[in-house]
UniProtKB/TrEMBL annotation:
Provenance organism: Microbacterium pullorum
Principal location: membrane
Family stated for the protein in its record: Belongs to the Rieske iron-sulfur protein family.
Domain Rieske: 251-342
Membrane topology note: Multi-pass membrane protein
Descriptive protein name: Cytochrome bc1 complex Rieske iron-sulfur subunit
Length: 359
């Protein structure tokens, strides 16, 4: 044994715990058990219990009022008018109504559980297996106990107001669907047919491609190699919001990209759909309609930022990754006598999500 080993043994033998230092012992720690139950104010004061009950069903009826107001706001401030003030008020007051409806249900449910439902601690023994005849009765008894502890069966005002609030809370959402597919009218017989509406845009033969949002037409010579430009029909710039500017733009928005002509892989029937390496594709993703906007020059890929669908611009905007079910619709283009890019026709297929084509 070395001198260092002797010193270590001596140090171990002479060590004593300092005062106040906790030392582990082999005796088990006694279970302190649950703290004594502390009664709530509502448990000992009937008046407080009545106030809590009134508060809960008042919140549920307030939620009901919020849902009704959201539906009323949808009608009072019609977003179809196209006026900015109506659009702002529509979003503001519908949002406030839905927020009040959901918030009041949440606060009411929490207050119900904390102030009215039984808060006695209990132990539920766990069984290794189930399936005995007594299991069914035990489950029924469990519902009976829960009903008794929560007061759900006895407190009719709370129960009925909760049912009314829950049913009403979904009505604003259902009401908002009304704006997605307006009903047909004699003046607009195709208003309720999304397949028809998405199969026809403002693009037509001779319609110039224009910068968004200025509406200035684009010359083919102005597009440099590798550039990508967001374009709209030239005539769209003169359309007012009241006349459906946003609706038409949402369908007709296009991305024009310039590649080397030899980089394009074009089907025989689409050889004349591009001009000197310039191709134009719908910007509306064929998955759920998000705007496809991210272009990678080296790979010629377009990326949809919502769900990461990728399209190959050099190969007919074919889907190479992601959930999109079909390529981006291509807009046939050429140039006019002044060198401006123009459309040969409208899209030959519906724009947007492919589910619009399903019947």
């Amino acid at each position: 044994m070395t001198h260092e080993d002797d010193a270590l043994e001596h140090e171990r033998a002479s060590w004593k715990p300092s005062p106040g230092l906790a030392v582990a012992v082999s005796d088990p720690v006694e279970n302190p058990g649950l703290p004594p139950h502390r009664a709530r104010v509502t448990d000992s004061d009937p008046a407080a219990m009545k106030r809590a009950v009134r508060t809960v069903y008042t919140l549920f009826y307030l939620s009901l009022a919020g849902s009704i107001w959201a539906v009323a706001a949808y009608m009072i401030f019609p977003i179809e008018s196209g006026r900015i003030v109506d659009i702002r008020n529509n979003n503001l007051f519908i949002g406030l109504g839905i927020a009040l409806a959901l918030l009041a249900i949440g606060i009411g449910a929490i207050h119900w559980s904390k102030a009215i439902m039984s808060d006695k601690e209990f132990i539920e023994p766990r069984h290794a297996t189930r399936g005995r005849d007594a299991t069914r009765e035990a489950a029924v008894q469990g519902f009976r106990d829960a009903n008794e502890e929560s007061g759900f069966g006895r407190r009719t005002m709370i129960r009925n107001s909760l049912f009314a609030a829950l049913v009403a809370s979904v009505i604003p959402g259902i009401t908002l669907f009304r704006g997605l597919a307006p009903e047909s009218t004699p003046e607009n017989p195709h208003a309720g047919d999304p397949v028809y509406l998405l199969s026809h845009t403002m693009w037509k033969e001779g319609e110039r491609l224009a910068h968004d949002p200025s509406g200035l037409p684009i010359r083919a010579a102005d597009l440099t190699l590798g550039s990508v430009v967001q374009v709209i029909p030239e005539s769209l710039a003169s359309l007012s919001h009241h006349d459906g500017y946003l609706e038409e733009k949402a369908k007709a928005i296009v991305l024009a990209v310039r590649l080397l002509p030899e980089q394009l892989k074009e089907a025989d029937e689409r050889k004349d759909w591009s001009y000197d390496g310039i191709v134009a594709y719908s910007k509306v993703c064929t998955h759920v309609g998000c705007p496809v906007a991210l272009y990678e020059q080296q790979t010629h890929h377009l990326l949809c930022p919502c769900h990461q669908s990728q399209f190959d611009v050099s190969d007919g905007a074919a889907v190479i990754f992601g959930p999109a079910a079909r390529p981006l619709p291509q807009l046939p283009i050429t140039v006019d006598d002044e060198g401006y890019l123009v459309a040969r026709s409208d899209f030959t297929e519906p724009v947007g999500p492919s589910f619009w084509e399903r019947h």
